[in-house]
Amino acid sequence: MRKIVLGMAGAVALGLCLAARAQPGQGVPGADVDALLSQAQSRNPDYAALRHEAEAAEARSLSAGALPDPRLRTEWRDITRMGEQNATLAPSRVGSTRYLLMQDLPWFGKRDLKREVAELEAAGAQGRAQGIWAEIAGRIKTTFAQLYYVQRSERLNRELLDLMTRLEKIAQARYAGGLAAQQDVIRAQVEQTGLQNELIALDMERHHLHTRMNALLSRPGGAPLATPERLRPLPAPARLDPAALADRVRARNPQLFAEASRVRMAEKSRDLAYKNRYPDFTVGVSPIQYGSAVKEWELMVELNIPLQQSSRRAQEREAESLLSAAQARQEAAANQALAELSENLAGIEAARRTESLLGGSLLPQAELTFQAALAGYETGKVDFATVLDAQRQIRQARQERLKAQVEAQVRLAEIERLLGEDL
């Protein structure tokens, strides 16, 4: 019985090993975009750095409006008691000891402005972090689409290579029977060599894209990636309304959010510069000790006198100029984002129409043309050049259709980068 159980356990273990070998991509990212984005969000160092900077800015904003620490001053008066004793610092043995507790108080509203400036700076840092994530996500989506293109192009070239091998055999058979020239065989071999050369170039491009994707995921350059299975579905045309997307870009674009925070921060900084026209205060309370008892109390108020008006006016002009610069940057960023949105919307529509035209019209026509040319060549009605031209038409149509699909994915990734979120 024990031998049977051990045998069953060994069979199960062997089956699991074979299953694991049969599915080499299991557990390896790369088959779909969502898994890649999830891994990059937790591991990409650029995004992590800006996220930590945003957390630091948020923590800094909590203390920006706090009062400065109070100060304590101690004064020992007449430490020799009119020369009657040696110098001492014992409070009960000197002439008197004065304690002064002081607190600096900014002018009314300055603390609130400082806190608001820090909060807006934290919001801007958060916007920059979201902006770098949108950029990283866009690069991942684009690289994924390019990997899909390379992988499908390799498959297409191998299919065409098999087809050219078949055509070469047909040409050899016809040449052996005296029905075709040797040039047909040579041209088929030349075509195969060109396809093999393209496969080498595609393999090199796949290696570069593989390394680039791993860098975005903060993985070693040679770490394995699964083969992309499918492209993301394109959104319905109704969801690509230019006016609605323009409103979403204005409201949610991370860069525009960061620029808006910078404008508001410049406004608060300008208000703070104008507040510097007014003095800051220092208040204090001072008990005075004689012997072992406190017998006097004093109060004090101190303020700075803002006489250096020329320097303050310069600070105010600086704040006004910084506000104007922030507003100009915000307007420029908005114009650039809306221009890119319009360009990518037109690009995705053109790619969609191109794919529809190629898949629904040109590609079927090219396939029929090739079948007719191949049948005509086998019967001697057309020459080998006609077959090659028909084959090239199929190849070009398939590649153009694949390029249109990938172009639509790249445009979609750019639109989502501008939105700061997925459609």
Strands, helices and their partners?
Layout lengths: L1 H21 L10 H11 L1 H20 L6 E7 L18 E10 L4 H67 L5 H35 L25 H11 L1 H22 L5 E10 L2 E11 L5 H70 L5 H36 L4
Antiparallel strand pairs: 1-2, 2-3, 3-4
Helix pairs in contact: 2-4, 3-4, 4-5, 4-7, 4-9, 6-8, 7-8, 8-9
Sheet with most strands: strand arrangement: 1-2-3-4
Query: What is the rounded Rg?
Result: 38 Å
Question: Which overall shape is indicated by the principal axes computed on the Cα atoms?
Answer: elongated
CATH topology: Outer membrane efflux proteins (OEP)
Instruction: Describe the largest sheet.
Output: 4 strands, antiparallel
Unreliable runs: 1-26
- The CATH architecture comes to Up-down Bundle
Distance between the termini: 60 Å
Tell me the helix content.
55-70%
Integer count of domains: 1
The counted number of beta strands is 4
CATH superfamily: Outer membrane efflux proteins (OEP)
Give the mean pLDDT: 86
How would you portray this structure in words?
The chain has 423 residues and is of the alpha+beta class. It has one domain: Outer membrane efflux proteins (OEP), CATH 1.20.1600.10. The chain is 69% helix and 9% strand. It has 9 helices and 4 strands. The radius of gyration is 38 Å and the shape is elongated.
